[in-house]
């Protein structure tokens, strides 16, 4: 049994484990608001009872946990000042992801890199890790970078995260396809490695200054 979108009516046949939105959020380690948005966007199967309550199959939550969360990301990581640059890459093309990893490998300072293969996985990692930098493609499947940008704009908790968009689209094309926040940095692919290294180096320098100020407090 597959629910392709949120439906209204009785519990679908074959669904044994049923969760409320709050229970699903607790299992995923996310906020209720985040889970609600994922349901609305079709990222988690759900239905509405005749009484107007949202219900989520437990199997859908377990499937999401198994397919989208790497083992090292299960525990919530507190966002504390650190000299390690924490980077989240949202990229569904394994070749492009490997290219970015090769650039990170040339950096002379420590970087913790997590790779998400679509916007929904990236959203989960944002909730859990609060990285210093989000690097994202726009044209991803099934959920693209425009979904991710919309979520970042709406959630005040994400506004301290720097965003770098890497896309084959030029900036004008991208803006014609969806809304992009004014504060993002935009590089068109193919990206020159030295330019990317310079960006990461500048980002790390700002992080060191922030860390030093925190120690002085």
TrEMBL record:
**An annotated Gene Ontology molecular function:** DNA binding
Residues that bear 4-aspartylphosphate: 137
Q: Which residues form the Response regulatory domain?
A: 86-204
Alphabetized, the UniProt keywords read: Phosphoprotein
One Gene Ontology term of the biological-process aspect is: phosphorelay signal transduction system
Q: Which Gene3D superfamilies match?
A: 1.10.1660.10, 3.40.50.2300
Does the keyword section mention DNA repair? no
Protein name per the record: Helix-turn-helix domain-containing protein
- The species is Rhodoferax aquaticus
């Amino acid at each position: 049994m597959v629910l392709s979108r949120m439906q209204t009516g009785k519990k679908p046949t074959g669904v044994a484990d049923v969760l409320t939105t709050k229970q699903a959020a607790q299992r995923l380690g996310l906020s209720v608001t985040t889970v609600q948005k994922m349901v609305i966007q079709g990222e988690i199967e759900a239905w509405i009872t005749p009484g107007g309550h949202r219900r989520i199959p437990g199997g859908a939550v377990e499937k999401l946990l198994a397919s989208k969360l790497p083992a090292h990301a299960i525990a919530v990581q507190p966002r504390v000042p650190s000299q390690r640059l924490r980077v989240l890459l949202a990229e569904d093309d394994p070749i492009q992801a490997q290219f970015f990893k090769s650039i990170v490998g040339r950096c002379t300072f420590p970087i913790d890199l997590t790779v998400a293969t679509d916007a929904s996985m990236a959203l989960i990692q944002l909730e859990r890790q609060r990285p210093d930098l989000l690097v994202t493609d726009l044209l991803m499947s099934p959920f693209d970078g425009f979904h991710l940008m919309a979520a970042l704009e709406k959630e005040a908790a994400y506004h301290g995260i720097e965003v770098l968009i890497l896309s084959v689209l030029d900036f004008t094309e991208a803006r014609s396809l969806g809304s992009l926040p004014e504060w993002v940095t935009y590089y068109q692919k193919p990206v020159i490695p030295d330019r990317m290294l310079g960006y990461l180096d500048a980002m790390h320098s700002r992080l060191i200054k922030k860390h030093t100020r925190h120690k002085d407090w």
